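Please check these two lines:
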Amino acid sequence: MGGTAVVVGGGIGGLAAAIGLRRIGWEVTVVERAAALADAGAGISLHANGLRALDVLGVGAAVRAAARPQYTGGTRTPSGRWLARMDGAALARALGTPIVGIPRAVLHGLLRDALPPRCLVVGVTVPSVDRSAPGRVRVPVGDGVLDADLVVAADGVRSRLRGGLFPGHPGPVHNGSTVLRAVTYRPVALHSDFELTWGRGTEFGHIAFADGRAEWHAVLNSPPGVRYADTLGVLRRRFGRWHDPVPALLDATRPEQVLHHDVHELATPLPSFTSDRIALLGDAAHAMTPNLGQGACQALEDAATLAAALSTEPSVAAALARYDSERRPRAQAVARAARLAGRMGQQLSHPLAVALRDTALRLAPSGATARAVLRHADWAPPALG
């Protein structure tokens, strides 16, 4: 089964969906509201499930070649005491691939390069679609209209298309945290590939990249909308006495490179990831907190599963029914687990609760961290027909 599709949103999930659809013979147009598909963002860890999805889409090898495997690291206290260590080699043996760290800009560029430029339309917002024609969806694009057999709504956590499909849904809500992140402008001497440090209502972490630079992120309990005139100065005062390499990472950061976003999620699950000939994908379908590092991986799973369903089912309706039945239970379960991980981890602020958390993590069996990763990362993608 072939056809024509319009993907609304040119982020990681939207580009991956377009790649998958093209691999099964569909004509695809990606419409992005930004004026350019810029290589923006900080860094990302990709677990085995995300990498397996990328393999199905045909870009896994290129991503691995540009990424840095994560073999060492774990979770620490602000003083530097280890609470849990990550055995990345054991995870790689269990899953067949290590977790990898890669700049979002590099990942985005690799996905974009896998598509012909003619597929990409930028600087256009799609506020709604017309589903009045039987068997078709009409998508306004600039001064024209695209007719499609399928629309993929990959337009992010504040998806306009989701709002039109499910007007009674409350939409995204703030989860009580805000995240600041950046990529260092120069290499930093690091002793591990990946670390998290938990304080009281705070978290600081880093991901090492293949070129020696690193992504760092700081998560704070905060109401939405709080911003700082001197963001890097605030972070230095907040984290400057934390263990090495936290101060070194901040020192290797240019102030203008710090990104600041409040954390929003779809706390109320959607009743469906599809409606007629429209499929919701990525944050538009299941925006989740970043506490498990699974947001992008789940979007990649969406893309691979959608392509597989469309390649084997006899109709778009049957394919979307299969996509919803396979993706919605899993993605919403991961979202619930991510929310719980944040509440029991970074968001704890009472001294007694923090002490209990740290003690429990320190006394947990050595394989507990690996089992927690395996619970969500051990996913097998469906084959493309």
